[in-house]
Amino acid sequence: MSVPVVEVRGVTKAFGDAPVLRGIDLAVREHEAVALIGASGSGKSTLLRCIDLLEPIDDGDVLLDGEVVTDPSVDPVKVRRRLGMVFQAFNLFPHLTAIENVALAPVRAQGVAPADARTRAAELLARFGLAGREEERPDRLSGGQQQRVAIARALATQPRALLLDEITSALDPELVGEVLEVVRDLKAQGTTMLLATHEMAFAREVADEVCFLHEGRILERGAPAVVLEEPEQPETQRFLRRLLAARQL
Amino acid sequence: MTAVASPQDRRAYRAAAHRRATRRGVLIAAGSTIVVVGGLVALAVTSPGWDSVRATFFDRAAFAAAFPDVLAGFKLDVALFLLVEIAVLVLGLVVALVRTTRAPALFPIRALLVVFTDVFRGVPTILVVYLVGFGVPALQIKGLPSDPLVLGGIGLTLSYTAYVTEVYRAGIDSVHPTQRQAALALGLTGGQSMRFVVLPQAVRRVLPPLLNDFISLQKDVALVAILGPQEAFRVAQISASSTFNYTPLLAAALLYLCVTIPLARLLDHMQRRGAR
Q1: Are the Cβ atoms of B184 and A54 closer than 8 angstroms?
Q2: Tens-binned pLDDT, residue by residue, of chain A (249 aa)
Q3: Comparing C-alpha atoms, which of A119, A193, A204 is closest to residue A161?
Q4: Which of A138, A194, B23, B136 is spaced 20 to 30 A from A234 at the CA atom?
Q5: What residue ranges of chain B have pLDDT lower than 50?
Q6: Residue B148 pairs with which residues in a beta bridge?
Q7: What is the largest CA-CA distance in chain B?
């Protein structure tokens, strides 16, 4: 079997005395999408941030293409250049236009010529339905458009894998669809992804594997149809029942 | 108004009421201004010393005689102001950046800069100018500047850099940490994140307070007068003490206002724009 693009081995992490991750094992293979589900506070976001080395881990290892990247001798900047991250709150740079947001990292972090970076950024924006909005600043775009710019920005550096942190949770309900459509499109083109999500129908559709996080552990994992429809663990059942009840309100 | 009135009627009725209220507001404002200003002028003009005040402070001939010299002195003020302003902008940013880094090698410099800001923010500017102006030449070290104008400029720069550093620092702290994180996640280094993401946002936010500090710098430039350079206030003072007529000081005051008032309006404009 091939080496996973992203692999997490026994990762633990505590904020002060509060353990957030209590031994996570996970692998995302090339062209695979793995969905992390679980209640708020179960550790999904922290796990993604630890993988992107935005947060130091206490124990265990994160591997990128088989290389241990959590070793202190590894330069975190170089690791982050090989991963793309999209945040729940978009975190676009408000002083830059859409196209400048997308072209910033290729120019500054990868040394791409500005003209080439802009051409590629325009292509990415057009691919996500943002042609004609290149020169807009983020505050002139809708939430859904901003998140699509953020996805384009994360992809501009041609990362090995995308880490998506609840990218639809801050959106108005009617804007969720357009962002999910983009992710669906990326999956169809074989982008390797690890996504934390509350959209179960979507997880079921795009994910190859679903992992249910509960209090810092992966309690249950497997094919989406199994985990989401016939979960074995009582905690998973309870979580899904609650989500379903909330949807029907 | 009756309930059956047409929408057009109601709109016209409301517009008319609105116009009346506006007109009434303008009239009240004008009336109260006339009363207040007129009262103040009457108070001054009817005061027992008014005639002598008018003769010593508002003398047309003395104004005309002193104005060219005061204006020449004021050019020195403006030149000094511009030079000090540029130095303060650059140094303040450097100090702020060093103070926000966490590089261990810079620890002693960071500690020194904390002392620097504490000291120069805490000591009156006039004292700093005085101490630098008379203290540095007293050291008698070769190569140190001895021109009072340069020394005065250095004193002002020290004092204002301490203020402006804190303004920059407040701006940097006001940029949400998720901005830096997003920049790091893209593979930018810490320094690049500061330069391309945090700093541009921080500087934009602190432009009004920076400008505010520069308005006060523009008038504090007059403090170098205590070291001797012939700037506007000094020239006016010399002229006043030789003729016993204080009108030249008024001329100097008017010149300072010619710079500070436009700056203040620019600041208002920027703050209004920032609020939107």
Answers
A1: yes
A2: 689 999 999 999 999 999 999 999 999 999 999 999 998 888 999 999 999 999 999 999 999 999 999 998 999 999 999 999 999 999 999 999 999 999 999 999 999 999 999 999 999 999 999 999 999 999 999 999 999 999 999 999 999 999 999 999 888 888 898 999 999 999 999 999 999 998 888 899 899 999 999 999 999 999 998 999 889 899 999 999 888 888 776
A3: A193
A4: A194
A5: none
A6: none
A7: 93
Paired sense of beta strands A209-214 and A33-37, if any: parallel
How far, in Å, CA of A110 to CA of A105, rounded?
Answer: 7
Cα–Cα nearest to B224, from B123, B144, B128 = B128
Q: Tell me if chain A has a CB within 8 Å of the CB of B241.
A: no
- Among A49, A87, A93, A147, most B C-beta atoms within 10 A, so best to mutate, is A93
- With CA atoms as reference, the chain B residue closest to A96 would be B197
What are the distances in angstroms from CA A249 to CA A236, A244, B89? 20, 9, 57
**Which single residue is written with the structure tokens 């079921």?**
A204
Q: Which two tokens stand for residue A87?
A: 């945040």
Residue of B nearest to A53 (CA): B185
Residues of chain B neighbouring A84 (CB-CB closer than 8 A): 185
Q: Is the ipTM of this complex over 0.90?
A: yes
Judging contacts by C-beta atoms under 8 Å, the chain A residues touching residue B192 are: 108-109
Question: Which residue, among A174, A163, A150, has the nearest Cα to A94 in the 3D structure?
Answer: A150
Give the A:B interface size as CB pairs under 8 Å. Answer: 60
In this prediction the pTM is: 0.82
B139-to-A187, B123, B146, B147 alpha-carbon distances in Å: 73, 21, 10, 14
Helix, strand or coil for residue A24?
strand
Report which DSSP code applies to A165: E
Which chain B positions have a beta carbon within 8 Å of A89's beta carbon?
178
Q: Which residues of A touch B184 (CB under 8 A)?
A: 54, 77, 80
* Nearest residue to B227 via CA among B142, B138, B141, B162: B138
**Rounded distance between C-alpha atoms, residue B38 and residue A94, angstroms:** 50
